[in-house]
Amino acid sequence: MSNINTILVTGVTGNIGSHVLFELLFDLYSKKEEARIYVLIRKQRHISAQERLLNEVFSKQLIPEKIVPFYKEYIDKYVEVIEGEIHNFILPEKAGNTITVYHLAASVNLSNTEKAKHEIAHVNYHHTQAFFDTIKCRTKKLVFVSTAFSRGEIEGAIEEDYHSATTYNFRNFYEAYKMKIEKLVLQIAKENNFSCTIARPSIVSGRLIDFPKFVSSRYIVFYAVGEFFNKIKKSHSNIGTIRLALNIEGGLNIVPVDYVAKGIIRAADIKEEQLNITLTQNVPTQYIATSILKKCGINIELVPEEPEDKSTIEKLFYKTIGSQLLKYSMSKNHYFESKLIRKLLSNIEEPNMKEHFQEIYDFAHNINFNNANIKLEANL
Predict the structure, then answer these.
(1) Does residue 163 register a pLDDT over 60?
(2) Domains defined for the chain, CATH in brackets
C-alpha cells in the first residue's frame, strides 16, 4: 500500500464535496487504480460520521449513474471515515506524509450581520488555520476550494490572479474571509514546501453532465428565491406584482456541480496557484429572475434598485433572501477569465447554462427543493 495515492477530503457532506468524492471513485474505477481516501466528517447528535457518509453523501437520489455498479465495493475498499471537526481531528499515522488534500469544508453565510461575521471568522478562518496546523507537514498537494466571488465587486474581466489587486470591494464577510484565508493558505504552502492551487467555483447549480441530470445535494442561492416565492404563493392567493431589483444588463456565472468537481480533481495536477472554475458565458440576471418567478406563477417587475414603498411580501423578501442576494443581482457587468479551466477540461464540452437554466431550476421546483421527492429507478 506504500505506493498508493493517499487523499484527504473535507466537506464531503456538502454539494461540491460529495461530487468530488464521486469523481475520485470514478477515476479509480476508470483508470483501474487504487487509493486510500480519507473523508473528514463531523458526527451529529445520534448520527455517526459513517452514517452521514452513507445516508447523506451516498443517498440513492444523489448518486450519479456512472458509479452505481461499483460504489459500495469501492467505499469498503478505499474510503475511510475520520470522525471529527476540521479544527479537531486525528490524521492516522498510516496516511503517511505525501497526502493530496481537497479542502472544501466551509460555512456559506452571505449575511452582513455581526453574527454572520463571527461564524465566518470562526469556521472559515480560525478553524481552517487549525486544520492546516494538523496537515501542513504531511501534504504533497493541496486544492483549496474558495469562491470566484472572493475578488469582491468588480467590473469587466475578472482574471485568475486575484492576489495582485491592491483594493477589494467585498459584498459580505464570506467574500472577505475567503480572500484572507486564500492568502494565508498560499503562505503556509510555501513555508511547508507543498504545492497549492486555489480553486474558485462561481454560483453552483445541479448537474448538467452526469446522469441523472439537474440533481444537487442542496438547492440554495438562486434556488432559494424560487423556494421563497413558491411557499408564499401557497399561503397567499393574491400576491400582486413583485418588484425585483437587479442590473438589467448584468449576468451571473452559474456552473454545474459536476463540472466544478471535475475541475477540482484535475486541479491536483497543475502548478498554477489560482484557478477560476467558471463558465465563459454568464446567464443574464434578467433571464434568471423571470424564469424562476414564471415557474412560481408570480408576476414580476424588474426595477433598478430596491423599492422604498414595499408591499408586505416585498418587505419579507428583501429582509430575508433579498438581503443576501441583492448585491449579486445588482452586480456590475463582469465576466470571469475561464481559459485555464477550459484547458483542464478540454475533453469535456462546456455546458450551456443559459440553454439549460430553465430545466435546472424547474427540476428543483418540481421536487419541492427536496431530493426525498425524487422517484427512484428500480436499478438503484
Answers:
(1) yes
(2) 5-207+253-278+334-347 (3.40.50.720)
